[in-house]
Design brief:
Largest sheet: 17 strands, parallel
Distance between the termini: 163 Å
Oligomer: single chain
Shape: elongated
Number of helices: 3
Number of strands: 54
Structural class: mainly beta
Radius of gyration: 43 Å
């Protein structure tokens, strides 16, 4: 009787507990079977708790799984950061189920602490795992603490180390205390400033670092920090608001640096840092509104955007294996200090692009006085200067070829720069406007170049040494101390045309035309060639070559001496290898006839080539007008009226020789 009562009670217990868990169907028979054994009642109940209602229930029940939520902010966790997490529960069907009470723990409380309410605090650099559990069900999340968030005033000397970077500040961070406080940023560290105002800084320092507010890196040693600027204002301070040294840089994505009421200037940085300068800020009421760019080699392409008040303090080199190109957009005004310059492609490939066709003008000018200018070397990539004015440049001859505002320097063996200059004005250059050396020349498409106001010991718009005048673009080249284009060591070995630049060419060492390829020199109407004393125009004397000097009545081509007296140069020499297409028509040859010990004549002709001199005026020769050399059978009389040649005021006969 007692056994039957115990079984009945056990069956009742199984049924009641089953229904209490929300099951609306009969418990499985094995539970009843278990309940028939008095000792098995507790086991049956445990099975019920573990199984819940099974698949046939209408409502899920029973905690099967938990998951830590609120972890998004933990993926970039910094020392002094806080975050709150919670634990979500789920039943066996994946539906939400209450989870609690929750027990939280950290695998390393010295790195991460977590309280009973799920508040996580980053205490130190390192890694730790937080775990939340309900009974025997748990979930874990690993966290890496890398970097430091600075929240509290700095009242004593402090160092932001490389190991603890990035160092992140948001809002106002006070730095100061009795006797002064120094915040030191380790070499190589990264600093991020978000919506920060910095003020009251820039005290005189006792070390070798410059006076400023945000001073990164060292001039001479060590890896350099990087700085992320995100809406940062520096105000009411002294020195430089931001000073980057060595390889210190702004982090890409920096924006909105504002500087106001500085007893100093905006910023100083290596020129390579300018491309990431934080744009979008304002600058006002500063002693000097300058962003100063110091000596650097640009090894990656970069843009110096319009907006910041740049000034270049030193030579800037653009070169390297990554073939960097510096772009200065339309509308930029770029001042330069004395001796500052842009040097392109000297020891490796590099390029320079200034302005755009149709864009606002670019101005390159000195801060005061003069500046060094632009230099393009043999490794210069395709470069262009468009819609730009270059003022008062050429004060420092670092190229080895004298002072010039712009230099194109080739290697004399076929490798040379060819930058395109279009709508460019060069004013007030020192010594030379454009210096083209060793094959350097204006690139194809150059046009509308004006060079005026050149002064100094030379004072000429263009100086060519081993480079052809053929690339000289249209424009204006007058108004200089010496309105001539210097041609040094002139030699024509390929077919080319010399344009009429509106000023004479001054041929300093004579001009020879000849090569196995039989090159032709064509001179445009109106061209004037002035030869220095002892100079001579030699056509096909030792090897084939020819010249086409065909002017017009209104624009004759003139060959004359540098100085205005008879015999100031030797004259024209047409040699035995001159091609029969050589022609002089509507030409003036004057002041020739300097005696070389054999002849004194305006023209000396080596062989019969027909009437290739027509409508030509030979005047003020120190000897004959034309000399036909012996050794050839001559049939052409160059004094024949039909040829239209004129001879005036020559010391000798109009025509000499056989």
């Amino acid at each position: 009787m007692m056994e039957a009562s115990r079984v009945s009670a056990n069956l009742l217990t199984v049924y009641d507990v089953w229904r209490a868990f929300g099951c609306n169907f009969a418990p499985p028979s094995f539970l009843y079977a278990s309940a028939m054994r008095t000792a098995a009642a507790s086991t049956a109940l445990a099975v019920i708790l573990a199984l819940g209602c099974g698949d046939s229930g209408t409502e899920p029940t029973g905690l099967r799984r938990v998951q830590i939520v609120g972890t998004a902010s933990l993926t970039h966790f910094l020392v002094n950061d806080t975050a709150r997490v919670s634990l979500a529960g789920y039943d066996k069907n994946g539906a939400s189920y209450p989870a609690g009470p929750v027990t939280w723990r950290s695998s390393d409380p010295t790195v991460l602490s977590i309280d009973t309410a799920g508040l996580v605090v980053a205490r130190a650099l390192g890694s730790a795992t937080i775990t939340g559990s309900v009974g025997t069900v748990s979930d874990s999340f690993p966290i890496q603490v890398a970097g430091t968030r600075h929240r509290w005033p700095i009242t004593a000397n402090e160092t932001w180390t490389l190991a603890a970077s990035p160092h992140v500040v948001k809002g106002r961070l006070a730095v100061g205390g009795a006797g002064g406080v120094t915040l030191t940023i380790d070499a190589g560290a990264t600093v991020q400033l978000h919506y920060v105002t910095v003020s009251g800084c820039g005290q005189v320092r006792t070390d070798d670092q410059p006076v400023g507010c945000l001073v990164l890196g060292h001039r001479f040693s060590g890896a350099s920090p990087t700085l992320l600027v995100d809406h940062v204002t520096v105000q009411d301070a002294a020195g430089g608001a931001v000073i980057l040294q060595s390889t210190s840089r702004f982090t890409p994505g920096s924006s909105a640096l504002s500087v106001q009421r500085m007893h100093g200037y905006i910023a100083t940085m290596p020129a390579g840092a300018a491309g990431e300068f934080p744009l979008g800020g304002t600058f006002s009421a500063n002693d000097s509104n300058e962003v100063r760019l110091t000596r650097d080699t640009l090894r990656d392409s970069t843009v110096w955007a319009a907006g910041p008040p740049w000034i270049v303090l030193d030579p800037i080199y653009i070169e390297g294996p990554r073939q960097p190109v510096l772009t200065i957009p339309a509308g930029v005004t770029l001042p330069f200090a004395f001796g500052a310059s842009l040097v392109v492609g000297n020891n490796g490939p590099g390029g320079l692009r200034i302005g755009t066709d149709g864009g606002a003008a670019v101005s390159l000018a000195p801060r005061s006085g003069t500046w060094a200018g632009l230099a393009f070397y043999p490794a210069a990539l395709a470069s262009a200067v468009t819609n730009a004015t270059l003022d008062d440049c050429g004060n420092y001859g670092s190229t080895g070829y004298g002072q010039a505002c712009v230099s194109f320097i080739g290697n004399f063996f076929g490798t040379a720069p060819t930058p395109v200059f279009k709508n460019v004005t060069i004013r007030g250059a020192v010594d030379v406007g454009v210096n083209a050396i060793g094959g350097g020349r204006f690139g194809d498409g150059s046009a509308n170049v004006t060079i005026t106001g050149t002064h100094g010991s030379i004072g000429a718009p263009i100086w060519l040494w081993g480079s052809s005048p053929a690339s000289i673009p249209s424009g204006g080249y007058s108004g200089n101390a010496m309105d001539v284009i210097y041609v040094i060591y002139g030699e024509v070995t390929q077919t080319e045309t010399w344009p009429n630049p509106g000023v004479p060419y001054l041929i300093r060492d004579g001009l020879g035309i000849g090569h196995a390829a039989n090159p032709r020199l064509t001179l445009d109407p109106g061209v004037v060639l002035r030869f220095a004393p002892g100079g001579i125009l030699s056509v096909g004397w030792l090897v084939s070559g020819n010249v086409r000097a065909i002017g017009t009545d209104s624009e004759p081509i003139i060959f004359t001496g540098q100085y205005d007296f008879a015999g100031s140069w030797m004259g024209v020499m047409v040699g035995p290898y001159a091609d029969t297409t050589t022609a002089f028509d509507h030409v003036i040859v004057q002041n020739g006839g300097a005696d070389d010990g054999q002849f004194a004549t305006g023209f000396r002709l080596a062989r019969e080539m027909g009437p290739f001199i027509r409508n030509t005026l030979v005047q003020r020769s120190a000897g004959c007008g034309i000399t036909r050399l012996s050794g050839s059978t001559w049939t052409t009389d160059f004094t024949a009226p039909a040829l239209g040649n004129t001879f005036q005021n020559n010391a000798g006969a109009a025509q000499c020789g056989p």
